[in-house]
């Protein structure tokens, strides 16, 4: 039986990457050591992290005035690092269009009890179950604010932001965890981008931060580990970094470059998602909860059947048929197909055939 992994993260990795990592696992570059055994100060690892940064810069066309950091703590640690480093004594705006954006704002509110800054909820679609991206107006944004925080892809709810809002000149900080390298955003449109690796980049444990140099803090923050300038000056080697994860990210970057880069990947993602969305749209049995089609995610596609009972049955039968981790997030239920960069198109075709059979067997 063929297994298709629809997990929202940690997610499917390219088989070519896994095979290469397997081949090099016991002896990396004739060192007679595994990558996991290499000193982070060694010449061999120094080349790995430099290659990883070079490849990412090439894939995303990252300008020279941006620093690229490989950090730990997951994207959620950035919820605190961002205001600690950037917002002291200022206003900071939050566009909340999903559960992770809400968590980022909640952490900022918590932190504002300790350090002097003002987190402002600029707009939220929570009252509507996060079924759309709320609109904002530049006139509501003070030009001297530290930043506007937003999430480009809402993993749980299946919405995405492709056109960036007018922010009255305020830098945009984007949580790009679930669609980095899956859509051709222009890095220069952002003050900072951050992303957990475990969806499109590699295994869990690495967080990518791309930050414009002029936004680096001028004063030390609460902890050296949470200090962007210290991390940048140390070239991500202030302490032992997640060496194996960075190595895996490098392999994924190589794979993506060989495939044709982000432009080609976007094309493939559009084709994969269109197959599933088109099938759902023509069906009277399945529904997609996203209100506006232009807000639909290329990466995460939630859907439901006519009832929770049937949703539960679908999840059980899908799992037995080899469609793994397709159950929707516990906060919203239903199903969710995560079609990240490494997910194969044949998996989408197979899922649609299963959905057709399930509909035929269970429609009223």
TrEMBL record:
<dbReference type="InterPro" id="IPR000192">
    <property type="entry name" value="Aminotrans_V_dom"/>
</dbReference>
<dbReference type="InterPro" id="IPR015421">
    <property type="entry name" value="PyrdxlP-dep_Trfase_major"/>
</dbReference>
<dbReference type="InterPro" id="IPR022278">
    <property type="entry name" value="Pser_aminoTfrase"/>
</dbReference>
<feature type="modified residue" description="N6-(pyridoxal phosphate)lysine">
    <location>
        <position position="199"/>
    </location>
</feature>
<keyword id="KW-0808">Transferase</keyword>
<feature type="binding site">
    <location>
        <begin position="239"/>
        <end position="240"/>
    </location>
    <ligand>
        <name>pyridoxal 5'-phosphate</name>
    </ligand>
</feature>
<keyword id="KW-0963">Cytoplasm</keyword>
<keyword id="KW-0663">Pyridoxal phosphate</keyword>
<feature type="binding site">
    <location>
        <position position="198"/>
    </location>
    <ligand>
        <name>pyridoxal 5'-phosphate</name>
    </ligand>
</feature>
<comment type="subunit">
    <text>Homodimer.</text>
</comment>
<comment type="pathway">
    <text>Amino-acid biosynthesis; L-serine biosynthesis; L-serine from 3-phospho-D-glycerate: step 2/3.</text>
</comment>
<feature type="domain" description="Aminotransferase class V">
    <location>
        <begin position="3"/>
        <end position="351"/>
    </location>
</feature>
<dbReference type="Pfam" id="PF00266">
    <property type="entry name" value="Aminotran_5"/>
</dbReference>
<dbReference type="GO" id="GO:0030170">
    <property type="term" value="F:pyridoxal phosphate binding"/>
</dbReference>
<dbReference type="InterPro" id="IPR020578">
    <property type="entry name" value="Aminotrans_V_PyrdxlP_BS"/>
</dbReference>
<feature type="binding site">
    <location>
        <position position="100"/>
    </location>
    <ligand>
        <name>pyridoxal 5'-phosphate</name>
    </ligand>
</feature>
<protein>
    <recommendedName>
        <fullName>Phosphoserine aminotransferase</fullName>
        <ecNumber>2.6.1.52</ecNumber>
    </recommendedName>
</protein>
<dbReference type="InterPro" id="IPR015424">
    <property type="entry name" value="PyrdxlP-dep_Trfase"/>
</dbReference>
<keyword id="KW-0718">Serine biosynthesis</keyword>
<dbReference type="GO" id="GO:0006564">
    <property type="term" value="P:L-serine biosynthetic process"/>
</dbReference>
<dbReference type="InterPro" id="IPR015422">
    <property type="entry name" value="PyrdxlP-dep_Trfase_small"/>
</dbReference>
<comment type="similarity">
    <text>Belongs to the class-V pyridoxal-phosphate-dependent aminotransferase family. SerC subfamily.</text>
</comment>
<feature type="binding site">
    <location>
        <position position="175"/>
    </location>
    <ligand>
        <name>pyridoxal 5'-phosphate</name>
    </ligand>
</feature>
<feature type="binding site">
    <location>
        <position position="155"/>
    </location>
    <ligand>
        <name>pyridoxal 5'-phosphate</name>
    </ligand>
</feature>
<dbReference type="GO" id="GO:0005737">
    <property type="term" value="C:cytoplasm"/>
</dbReference>
<keyword id="KW-0032">Aminotransferase</keyword>
<dbReference type="GO" id="GO:0004648">
    <property type="term" value="F:O-phospho-L-serine:2-oxoglutarate aminotransferase activity"/>
</dbReference>
<comment type="function">
    <text>Catalyzes the reversible conversion of 3-phosphohydroxypyruvate to phosphoserine and of 3-hydroxy-2-oxo-4-phosphonooxybutanoate to phosphohydroxythreonine.</text>
</comment>
<feature type="binding site">
    <location>
        <begin position="75"/>
        <end position="76"/>
    </location>
    <ligand>
        <name>pyridoxal 5'-phosphate</name>
    </ligand>
</feature>
<keyword id="KW-0028">Amino-acid biosynthesis</keyword>
<feature type="binding site">
    <location>
        <position position="41"/>
    </location>
    <ligand>
        <name>L-glutamate</name>
    </ligand>
</feature>
């Amino acid at each position: 039986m063929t297994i298709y992994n629809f997990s929202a993260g940690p997610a499917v990795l390219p088989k070519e990457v896994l095979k290469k990592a397997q081949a090099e696992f016991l002896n990396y570059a004739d060192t007679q050591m595994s990558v996991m055994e290499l000193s982070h100060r060694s010449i061999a690892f120094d080349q790995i992290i430099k290659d990883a940064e070079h490849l990412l810069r090439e894939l995303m066309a990252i300008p020279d005035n941006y620093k690229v950091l490989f950090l730990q703590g997951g994207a959620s640690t950035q919820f605190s690092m961002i205001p600690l480093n950037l917002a002291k004594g200022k206003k900071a705006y939050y566009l909340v269009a999903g559960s992770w954006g809400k968590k980022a704002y909640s952490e900022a509110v918590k932190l504002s009890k300790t350090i002097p800054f003002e987190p402002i909820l600029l707009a939220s679609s929570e009252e509507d179950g996060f079924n759309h991206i709320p609109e904002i107006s530049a006139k509501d944004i003070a030009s001297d604010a530290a930043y506007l925080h937003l999430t480009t892809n809402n993993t749980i709810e299946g919405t995405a932001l492709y056109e960036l809002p007018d922010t009255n000149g305020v830098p945009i900080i984007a949580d790009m965890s679930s669609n980095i390298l899956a859509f051709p955003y222009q890095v220069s449109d952002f003050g900072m981008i951050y992303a957990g690796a475990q969806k499109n980049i590699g295994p869990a444990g690495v967080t990518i931060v791309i930050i414009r140099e002029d936004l680096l803090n001028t004063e030390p923050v609460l902890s050296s580990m949470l200090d962007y300038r210290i991390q940048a000056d140390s070239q991500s080697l202030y302490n032992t970094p997640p060496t194996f994860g960075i190595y895996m990210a490098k392999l994924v970057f190589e794979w993506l470059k060989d495939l044709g880069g982000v432009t080609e990947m976007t094309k493939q993602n559009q084709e994969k998602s269109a197959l599933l969305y088109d099938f759902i749209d023509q069906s009277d049995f399945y529904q997609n909860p996203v209100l506006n089609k232009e807000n639909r995610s290329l990466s995460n596609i939630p859907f439901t059947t006519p009832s929770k009972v049937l949703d539960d049955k679908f999840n059980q039968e899908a799992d037995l048929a080899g469609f793994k981790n397709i159950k929707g997030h516990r906060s919203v239920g239903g199903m969710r197909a995560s079609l990240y960069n490494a997910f194969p198109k044949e998996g989408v075709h197979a899922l649609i055939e299963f959905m057709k059979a399930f509909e035929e067997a269970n429609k009223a």
